[in-house]
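Hey team,

Filing this mostly as a record. A colleague (T.K.) asked me to run one chain through the structure pipeline before their review meeting, and I want the input and output archived in the tracker in case anyone asks later how it was produced. No errors, nothing strange. Just documentation.

Input sequence:
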Amino acid sequence: YYVSAFYKDSFGLLLSASVCVLYKRFALEAWMKFAEKYGKPIPMVNTPATKKEKKEILDAIFNMGEDGGLVLGELDKIIFANPVSGDNATNFEKIIHLQNSEISKLILGQTMTTENGSSKSQAEVHENTSFEIAEMDMQWIQGLINDELIPRMVRLGYPAELLNYNFEFSYFYNKRKEEVAKLQKEQEEAINSKFDRLTKLLPFIEIDDNLEQYIEQEFGIPVKKKVVQTPFNKSQNISITTKNKSIIKNQIDDTNFNLFQSYYDLVAISFFSGDTSDFNQSIIELTNKILANTLIGIEYAPDTLVLQSLKDNIFKFSCAKNYEELKNISKELLDEEGNKRTFAQFKEAIKKLNIQFNQQYLSAEYEIAVTSTQMISKWNELTENGANMDVLLTFDAVGDGKTTQICKSTNKITRPASDSFWNTHAPPLHWGCRSTLKKGKKITEIPSDLPELDAEFAFNPAQKAVIYSQKHAYFKDLPKEIKTEMEEMLKKYNEK
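Output structure:
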């Protein structure tokens, strides 16, 4: 029933300190008695008076008070005896100061944080010593509770589930959290510094295959040699289907996934301690960075406003996705029975969410972004950047065993670019869609039995200047205050 909390045969620091406390108490008591006896001058009367008269004079002295007086005879003389030299008080003070110092060194390992120090630097050294002792004491107590107290409690009948828990001082928890954040910041700053240096050198160096590979592996950015072209070049052929797969592989790789997981670990620490939030800036920025790289695929670039609209859409999508992520992470704090998970259980649960959101979902989201940018390029090519809306466009499905019924039914439909049909049926029409557009020869009728499209795909990316529709699940049912916060975040992002 008792947990031993002392070192070997010692009864602890307080036993050692008790000697100093006793000396200090004795010194204080002696000092008070000294002050009581010698704190004020003592009146002394020389008189030839009788015994009875001396008693009257003594009573008069006792009753005269601070402002009182005393009338004596001609032969009587009064003098005041001063207290003993002030050095006596210094003796008491030195004893008390010595005991305070000994107690400070005994408990804290130093004196300067509890008494006057000679310099800031010395005080910092003393303070560090105190922290080291405090940390060792806390670690010792943690071990005592986790290795001795909790197992004994379980043996005495407390729930066995207690063995899944570990006691930890919030000091260590916060310190570890700060160290992880500091390390993450240093890593990001190092990558940004490398990237800045590289971008400054790029105008002066030739990009070969080795440099392309380095940039893609180091920064996750697919490199493509810039094509110098006139505002419109009919002879240029656009085909990046083969490249798409390698781009996707490069973007949704182990490096980015592990980086997402490190951000999830930090979120786990915050959420488990009750510090929840609607957004995580690091996850948003990494998601946005990966998806925004797909805009490189727009070879027939739209005007600046359209390109900015695409960038804004991808950033908002990253925010909305992150909001959904954190909602799901928060739900994992409780198990199926509504009980709070242990921290280890919570971390394990949200690892599955990272796989779901940042491998499975992100791969599909990235692929649809690549397909949409292809579509925007093809639309700009065929319509001569919107200058020729009378051109006939034909829906071109792949036509193999993987082709969906939606694309099969829409295949070979040919309509002018200005036709409202393309407002809803421009590729992609679904997740994983591989269809595209090509120049048509003859207008065809639109079948009456076309399958109904999911609302999130019933739009034209080139006309709407967006990759992800507002009908997407991430955007649906967002609270008004969350939308406002997203707009503020976008504003700050564009300013930066």
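Quick notes for T.K.: Strands lie at 42-46, 77-81, 392-396, 414-416, 436-439. The CA atoms of residues 320 and 474 lie 5 Å apart.
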